Amino acid sequence: MLRIGILGLQGSVIEHTIMLERLEDVEPVQVKTRDDLDVIDGLILPGGESTTIGRLITDYNLKDKIIERARTGMPIWGTCAGMILLAKHIINDDKVHLGLMDIYVRRNAYGSQLDSFKTTLLIPVVAEYPIPLVFIRAPYVEKADGDAEILAELDDKIIAVRQSNLLATSFHPELTDDLSFHRYFANMVAKSTI
């Protein structure tokens, strides 16, 4: 049984939990303490408010432990705000949070809440069919460096990136009925525990 944590401080925690519960051999775990980080095989940084989540990670004394687990190979997936938390470079903000991925991210790149939208896209490494994508005040990646691999682009904007054990998406798979991205991440976690 894979234990996949969802950082439970703010954001779409319940939505990710519900998606993970639909997968076989996966147990979702809400992560709020340093001890919680010791009992999981992978971690999801959910969508929400990146400044708030970043501050809470520090306030709850989780930052260095998350970085340490990432550097020792634990898979981490950041959705929307989680992408911002993972980035080493934030183009329109001075604050870097975890600084783990070689990506340059633009916060709120798609505009305000009113500019939120849905679309579908074929992402071959994730699914054999077009999957639904939900963007809410979403960031996107302007540039990926090093061994960061671009998984998906939409209108010439990078919206999904993987770098070794790290995954980041601009959009919210947890706000759809499609399990493709959660299954993809669970497979990353399964391979890391072998």
Automatic annotation (TrEMBL):
Pfam family for this entry, one: SNO
- Give the catalysed reaction(s), semicolon-separated: L-glutamine + H2O = L-glutamate + NH4(+); aldehydo-D-ribose 5-phosphate + D-glyceraldehyde 3-phosphate + L-glutamine = pyridoxal 5'-phosphate + L-glutamate + phosphate + 3 H2O + H(+)
Q: Which InterPro entries match?
A: Class_I_gatase-like, PdxT/SNO, PdxT/SNO_CS
GO terms under biological process? L-glutamine catabolic process; pyridoxal phosphate biosynthetic process; pyridoxine metabolic process
One GO molecular function term of this record is: pyridoxal 5'-phosphate synthase (glutamine hydrolysing) activity
A cellular component annotation (GO) from this entry: glutaminase complex
Q: What is its EC number?
A: 4.3.3.6, 3.5.1.2
SUPFAM superfamilies, sorted? Class I glutamine amidotransferase-like
Q: CDD domains under this entry?
A: GATase1_PB (cd01749)
Binding-site residues, L-glutamine: G48, E49, S50, R107, I136, R137
Any signal peptide, and if so, which residues?
none
UniProtKB keywords = Glutamine amidotransferase, Hydrolase, Lyase, Pyridoxal phosphate
Hydrolase among keywords = yes
Active site (record annotation): C80, H172, E174
UniProt pathway annotation: Cofactor biosynthesis; pyridoxal 5'-phosphate biosynthesis
Q: Which family does it belong to?
A: Belongs to the glutaminase PdxT/SNO family.
Per UniProt, subunit arrangement is: In the presence of PdxS, forms a dodecamer of heterodimers. Only shows activity in the heterodimer.
Q: Explain the purpose of this protein.
A: Catalyzes the hydrolysis of glutamine to glutamate and ammonia as part of the biosynthesis of pyridoxal 5'-phosphate. The resulting ammonia molecule is channeled to the active site of PdxS.
The record's PANTHER family line, in alphabetical order, gives:
PYRIDOXAL 5'-PHOSPHATE SYNTHASE SUBUNIT SNO (PTHR31559), PYRIDOXAL 5'-PHOSPHATE SYNTHASE SUBUNIT SNO1-RELATED (PTHR31559:SF0)
Please give the name of this protein. Pyridoxal 5'-phosphate synthase subunit PdxT
